[in-house]
Amino acid sequence: MRTAIHLTFGALALAGLTACGSGAAPAPASSSGPAAPGKIAVAANDTECKVAASEVAAGTTTFAITNGGSKVTEFYVYAPGDRVMAEVENIVPGLTRELIAELPAGAYETACKPGMVGKGIRNPLKVTGEHKKLTADAKLAEAVASYKRYVKSQTDTLLVKTQEFVDAVKAGKIEEAKALYPVSRTYWERIEPVAEIFGDLDPAIDGREADLAEGDEWTGFHKIEKDLWIHKDVSKSGPMADKLIADVKTIVDKANAAELTPLHLANGAKELLDEVATGKITGEEDIWSHTDLWDFAANLQGSKAAVQSLRPVLEERAPDLVKTLDEKFAAAEAALEVHRKGDGWQLHNELSKAELKSLSDAINALGEPISKIAPVVAK
Amino acid sequence: MFASYLIGLREGLEATLVVSVLVAFLVKSDRKDKLPQVWAGVGVAVALSVAFGALLTFTAARLEYTGQELFEAIASLLAVVFVTWMIFWMRRAARALSGELRGKLSEALQVGSFAVVVMAFLAVAREGLETALLFFAAAQGATTTVEPLIGITLGVLTSVLIGWGLYRSAIKINLTRFFTWTGLLLILVAAGILKYGVHDLQEAGVLPGLTTYAFDISGVLPADSWYGALLSGIFNITPQPSVAEVVAWAAYLVPTLFLFLRPQRSKTTPAPASSAA
């Protein structure tokens, strides 16, 4: 009995954490507390045993076994030599039972045993890696894949537009460069959270003069912005432009090769909104060109793209949250739409304090439901 | 539906049998004052099982697979000790009765309330958590199909009825026969519980040889048939036991039966085979 109490109190202590398993934390350093991977559905009946995943990450895996047959079934996870790693019995027809298994990397077999006899219907199960990643669940994996496709599409255009911008700067075409500046940044701002994974490259591309530490070299978009709008002279900006396109190429390669997790998406969506609130509303981002609203729109679109990728998962786990998100996104977009001008936006210095406040309110109202995504994803 | 019913019946019988014999024995030997302790033990076990079950179902609390198996194994082994002690306790009482030594009877029955509570508790707690988890899973699935929930509930209710029937019939027969038959029944039950505990230890990986089967009669005795469910519920007789299970079962059954059935001498009090007291 004492054992049981210990076990349960241990479980309770774990329950005090956000979502709990008993293993490693997921990759993003920005998140706190361990997270459990999604559940793996097992559809069992009298003759079949369909396991939704044939490969899972090491750590705690939860199987949800649904018996659609007419016989009572059992579900086993076997290590080589039929050593039982975990099992759940008494899955009566029509019932779903869960099994929590702690699996180190290796080759395993799963088995359903309709009628509770025999060797069961076997499937191989590969367990890989050191850390458990949140991609165990097929829907989460698809969310990440879908977001990666988005990143790819944005980075492709980012390269093209940044190249055009750099070429204009090097050719001394100031007006053309000024027009291309907010456009090329749009593609950058949409995927900035991914870029932020690679620490020092982000400030090299997007660092602001005001944020420079003593002795840092200032490079990137904003240095060229100052040359264009303040010095009105880009004759010496060539090397800076070359460095910008080189850095962008590096980060595009890295971004497309990056191992993203669902938490990256959730946290990224939130970071983009924080960016809007701290940089774009205040006008601190594009202090000379005043093209903050282009960045604002891009951040909002990027945040929405990340949320949309997670949508299937969210609809399953938190349908109410999806509804709220849809409403608040629509409200924020509507608040921004007022300031559209031609195929671009009004400049930041053309907006009144009241107009900026209404934008800020819309973003804050959206930030609250977005901050709830990560816990849902980490469930 | 029937499959869920049988599972409820099986899980229920594992608890109700021991409890009903215990109650019958106390009633039979005029120790009704101990009954509240029996129900206290049962109540605490049910409450704890339901509480843990709810905790594991509705919160993020986790009990690793091996944890549950180990809990069941330890509870089972403890239950074997207590049930064995009860068998010989009853035997002493039977001696006192058959020898018309009424004065000795109350002496033989000087039993701690604690032991009664613990025995009733273990009988139920052993399978309580698993049954509670089953119930919650069935309740959660009731939105799609309510059959498992109804089936399991009816099964458990039936097991209570069977237990009650056993109690009624045990009350009616004469004392000597009562002690002999319930004693034999309990020995078989205890052997089954021990076998079950060994099986759980193997599943938890504490003991090896889970898949080294002694025999496989699943062709003759399907685990999902009504008689299969009854046999495993009452005596833990399963169609595909491991060698270790069978060895433990026999190693318990043979000496205990021998000690229980050997002729009683009226002078000396036999030393109980177990060290549970």
TrEMBL record, chain A:
A single GO cellular-component term from the record reads: periplasmic space
Extract the Pfam families matched here. Cupredoxin_1, Peptidase_M75
Q: Known PROSITE patterns for this protein? A: PROKAR_LIPOPROTEIN (PS51257)
Q: Where in the cell is it found?
A: Periplasm
Q: Which InterPro entries match?
A: EfeM/EfeO_iron_uptake (IPR050894), EfeO_Cupredoxin (IPR028096), Imelysin-like (IPR018976), Imelysin-like_EfeO/Algp7 (IPR034981), Imelysin_sf (IPR038352), Iron_uptake_EfeM/EfeO (IPR053377)
Query: Where does the Imelysin-like domain start and stop, copy by copy?
Result: 143-372
Signal sequence extent: 1-24
| Family from the record | Belongs to the EfeM/EfeO family.
Under PANTHER family, the record lists:
IRON UPTAKE SYSTEM COMPONENT EFEO
Please state what the protein is called: Iron uptake system component EfeO
TrEMBL record, chain B:
Q: InterPro entries, from UniProt? A: FTR1/Fip1/EfeU
Superkingdom, natural source: Bacteria
Report the membrane topology from the UniProt record. Multi-pass membrane protein
Which protein family is it in? Belongs to the oxidase-dependent Fe transporter (OFeT) (TC 9.A.10.1) family.
| Provenance organism | Nonomuraea polychroma
Transmembrane feature ranges: 6-26, 38-58, 70-90, 111-129, 149-167, 179-198, 242-261
Which cellular components does GO assign to this protein? high-affinity iron permease complex
Q: Which Pfam families match?
A: FTR1
Question: Which keywords does this chain's UniProt record carry?
Answer: Membrane, Transmembrane, Transmembrane helix
Cell compartments where the protein resides: Membrane
Q: Which GO terms describe its molecular function?
A: ferrous iron transmembrane transporter activity
Q: Read off the PANTHER family from this record.
A: IRON TRANSPORTER FTH1, PLASMA MEMBRANE IRON PERMEASE
Quote the protein name from its UniProt record: High-affinity iron transporter
